Amino acid sequence: TFYLPAYPADLNPSSLQPACTARDRLQKWQPAPHATHDPHSSPTTFQESDLNRIKDVIAHTCAESTKESYGSSLLIFHVFCDAKSIPDHDHAPANSELISMFISSLAGQYSGSTIANYLQGVRMWHIMHRLDWSHNNTEIEALLKAAVTLAPVSSKHKPCGPYTIAVLSLMHDNLNLTDLARAAVFACLTMTFWCTAHMGEFTVPCLDSFDSSLHVKPSNVTHETD
């Protein structure tokens, strides 16, 4: 069984995978030049900037959170390949056997959805760098189905209990609403509750992920009277 921790100290990442944020790995981590595959081959001569434009546009198919998730997928994939002493030029285009080995190494250690997401990250990396992605789909589907069955108990969590008016009242009575931060927390909670919305629609994962062009700001709040 192959366990995938963070990049092991005894493995040296290739120069093709420079240090960068997870969200940038799809574009900045390059596949090795392949003797029989030139991703830049074209009957017409294009400038490098024209070819990079293709990757830039494809990158916009993914939300920032998805790029980060796929970036983590690439890390897991390359750690797997390096631990198996697979040469850089065989990492991509990845053949069916390598992809099946990758999935089977993860089965039993992660949830089925996590493994499927890791696979999608590797696939998107191939697409972005215009590499072939042609595999034994029947085998891959069987492996992904088996991964769901083999998922460890620790990867499965019971659904959280619902928020109720009683819970909101309890929080109201125990929060100091004269404190702006706590008032904001309670406002977010009540808005989410009464709008029957997902918490992710009213919050951001971390402060660094706040985007003023996407997320609500105090200046967006208006008061209107019918």
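Second entry:
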Amino acid sequence: MECEGETAECYVKFFTLINETIDKVAPGEKFNPLAGFMADEAGGIQEGLRRVYGQAVLERIKTCEFHFLQCANRRQRARLHSDKSKEFFTRVTRALLATQTSSAYHAAVTELKDFVAKKPSKDQRGFLITWFQWWDDRRSHVFPAFARKNAPAANLAEVIHSKWKTTGGEHLSLVDAAAEDIKDSLILERQFKGYETDHFVGGSGPSVSSMSSRNYQAQKNRAEKYAKDLIEEDPSDLTSRADALGTFQVNPLSSHRATKP
């Protein structure tokens, strides 16, 4: 969304207008997705959602995993001194997104902390601790071991945002933004019609069948890890999401990513 500032006030206005529009065509209804709200970690949108939907909405926020990887690779990995360290950091950050249970997550965290402990000075690896703590406080939003199970992994709206950015569609006036929205809607409508007549050629991303296969394998892996935890009498995952939710407090002024310590 292009606006003067990504503040709680702007987001309150945005969601209020969306809900008023929906109510005109479907009285009593509002924008309230079943899978929750895909958002980044900017405090403005979180505070805006809370003001419009209430405190409980904070349990339904899901952060785009791509944002986490982007924050890790562009701003932290680049600060490490050796290729070996960078390779390790890439592996462990991806492992955090691959873990399906809290025990596996904490094992990856321990591995990261041990890595930092070998060179703890801030100009070596110490800066990773404050960076990771920022994300760990928000683990119920981003990491699969704690996040909502039925929410998407990535924010698909980024596709449109990227298109607008690369074509100069930033900070548009209301009329120009409306024109862009209508144009995108018409293009999407034609694509749907093409899909219905078997003439639409999709993108190069994973197919529905491959995504289903991935989801099935993820569930299978999660079932095995749940069973292992229960056998070892460590049923921590039964309360891990509730505990993770308890560590997060909205800061309306927070950036959408961990700032450089």
